[in-house]
Amino acid sequence: MKQTLTGLICLVCGLLSVSCYNNAHLRTTQALEDGERANAFSVISAIGGPAPGIENYSGISGLRIEASFLKGTGTGDQGPYLGAGLVGSDGTCYIAGYDKSRYIHLNNKIPCKLGVQGEIDISSGVVNGVGIQLRPFLTSMVTDTKQGYYGIHALLSYGNIDENISYYGENDKYKLSSVGLGFTAGTERPNKKTSLQYQYDISLVRSYLLDRDITDTKLMVSFSLGLNSFNKPKKSQSLIEYPYGIQEIEKLGKLHFDPETGLPIEEKKHTEEFQQYDPETGLPMEPEKSVKQPEFDPETGLPIPNPDPKKQK
What we know:
By secondary structure, the chain is mainly beta. It has helices at about 1-15, 245-255, 270-275, 310; strands spanning about 35-50, 65-70, 75-85, 90-105, 110-125, 125-140, 150-165, 170-190, 195-210, 215-230, 255, 265, 295, 305. The model is unreliable at about 10-15 and about 270 (pLDDT under 50).
């Protein structure tokens, strides 16, 4: 409750003193499974930041709302985000960006996210322009027993701006670039399928107003408040495993079954299907004892009887 109240105070202060720059992007610091999705809605308010040329706009909105859509890859997460922000008191900024990160371990103990966020800001109204920003970052990840996280980030931006209200003439066009380095600290509280997240960012930013030889270094602070929702991937049903292979199944299809026991009866061999019998005794003969062709006496024409194998012994 105390953290929520502190966050709301920071947000109100940010609304009263809007920055023309952004150093924060709030994303879940939980590890996502392969195929798991994390959708988030966040509000970011920044104070301070680059202001060379008195109050020139950097091209990157400092007060904004964002909706992000991350998907786990097994080794990290990635996904697009969209947003909208204010440009001064009469302008609007539309934001589109992409997040990509990889899960790593520092000293084989601390789980971290290493990644980069890139976006493009298009402003309209009193200030028209296009801004581009990259934000590489390294942030620790929360676990079941650890809800706090911290990390570092860098800032690289460029803006091509056209101000209708100018401090140098009736219509002022300028180009502005900025570099910065900062620290991130936050808390993420998971609750089954959702998590509530607070984040603070502090950065030292140096900006350059190109073609005018104006530089400026400013300290800026931002507060972010976000809500994440998680959707686990649907587990595909495993295929039914049969105890027999294709050849065994084909063989089973040719089997006959005993009508009394229901047990399979093996197919009779060729020698068993054509059982031979002793012509004198009528008893079945063994397969190797096949009957010889009868011989006939050339003088009488009568068949000569086969010798009795017992008598020969």
